[in-house]
Specification:
- This protein is an alpha+beta fold.
- It contains six helices and 20 strands.
- The strands form six sheets. A six-stranded mixed beta sheet has the order 11-20-19-18-14-17. A four-stranded antiparallel beta sheet has the order 4-3-1-6, with no helix packed on it. It has a four-stranded antiparallel beta sheet with strand order 2-5-7-10, with no helix packed on it.
- Helix 3 packs across helix 4 and helix 3 crosses helix 5.
- It is elongated, with a radius of gyration of 25 Å.
Length: 362
């Protein structure tokens, strides 16, 4: 497991006592506050004992189960005596020890089944007069998300500034080139790549937004690792697009698509969710009109995108109906002044409304 993880909760036994296991079979699933991890066995044999129960909290390296390696394919081996190996709850797929000392295998991609939220309660036969309640335990990931959200509110001087973006030009560009783009790069052209690249341009112009506070120091990042908030079955996850400032539109779109697929299947790794210098959250995919995002510490700012809706606006003294998106920038006022926040959001607005600026760096 990652260095920041010290324990996890046993959420599923995929093999029970008496079940035959082959090398690399998934035996159990442990949920941490960041990801769910498959526990695999490096030995073929039969499970003889389970050393933990469902919902138990296990520390890293805690013994988890015992496997009789003298029995393979359901038949006893020619060995004179049975060999029982104890496997640990560390994570899966590295060499395990056959001694009594628990092994410490590295993590493997979690199984989709382990990330499914608790099923909703069945509809009540009494309909609208039902006044019963259902209590469901929070997952470790949801607990960690709650903790980090409260930490962000309590440890930062958060302030939000707003602007609106006329999406007409970027929509026109997308409609004109989406087929050519898809044919050449094998991926659809969306709006996220434009906002990621516009954010990178703004981060370059306003370095304070790309910095963070460390004690009494301010640390300025000379690169742009953009975190993109993605919904997963177990909660919100924030994978990181590394060096987004050096990537093309197509590369950004590819990264976002890969992360979205991994989030749905629960296969995001710890490394893919670690770091980031700035975050973009797109509530517009759910139809959001307006909102104030919460900073993702230790970062100092987060951009909130919202839905695009037609609105009457004044253009050169005339009233026109344009597709408008509200955007919000929540920032830590301890490190970012109001002037810098407004200019940062204005730069994003300029780049999205006139994408040629991104090509010319103008």
């Amino acid at each position: 497991m990652g260095d920041s993880i010290t324990e996890g909760t046993l959420v599923e036994w995929t093999k029970n006592i008496g079940d035959q296991c082959q090398v690399d079979d998934v035996v159990a699933v442990i949920e941490t506050d960041k990801v769910s991890i498959d526990i695999r066995t490096d030995f073929a044999g039969v499970i003889t004992e389970q050393l933990a129960n469902l919902d138990d909290t296990l520390e890293v390296n805690a013994p988890l189960f015992k496997i009789d390696t003298s029995k393979t394919d359901g038949t006893p081996a020619a060995a004179a005596a049975a060999t029982t190996t104890t496997e640990s709850a560390s994570s899966a797929s590295s060499a395990s020890s056959t001694s009594s000392t628990p092994s410490t295998p590295p993590p493997s991609p979690p199984t989709p089944s382990s990330l499914q939220p608790p099923p909703p309660p069945p509809p009540s036969a009494t309909g609208l007069v039902d006044r019963t309640q259902n209590r469901v335990q929070m997952s470790r990931m949801r607990q960690r998300i709650s903790q980090r959200l409260m930490e962000a509110q309590e440890t930062t001087a958060s302030l939000t500034t707003f602007n609106e973006i006329d999406m007409k030009n970027i929509i026109t560009v997308r409609n004109k080139y989406k087929d050519i783009f898809a044919d050449k790069h094998g991926i659809k052209l969306g709006f996220m790549s434009a906002f990621v690249k516009a954010s990178c341009s703004a981060l370059s112009d306003i370095p304070a937004v790309n910095a963070y506070i460390d004690g009494k120091d301010i640390v300025y990042n000379n690169y742009s690792d953009v975190s993109v908030a993605v919904a997963s079955p177990n909660g919100l996850v924030v994978p990181v697009i590394r060096n987004a400032n050096t990537l093309s539109f197509a590369q950004v779109e590819q990264e976002i698509m890969n992360y979205a697929q991994k989030a749905k299947t629960g296969t995001l790794s710890l490394e893919e969710m670690t770091g980031g210098t700035f975050t973009i959250s797109n509530g517009g995919v759910f139809g959001s009109l307006f909102g104030t995002p919460i900073i993702n510490p230790p970062q100092s700012a987060i951009l909130g995108m919202h839905g695009t809706f037609e609105r009457p606006v004044a253009i050169n003294g005339q009233v026109e109906v344009r597709p408008i998106m509200y955007v919000a920038l929540t920032y830590d006022h301890r490190i970012i002044d109001g002037r810098e926040a407004v200019l940062f959001l204005k730069r994003i607005k300029e780049c999205v409304e006139d994408p040629v600026r991104l090509l010319l760096d103008a």
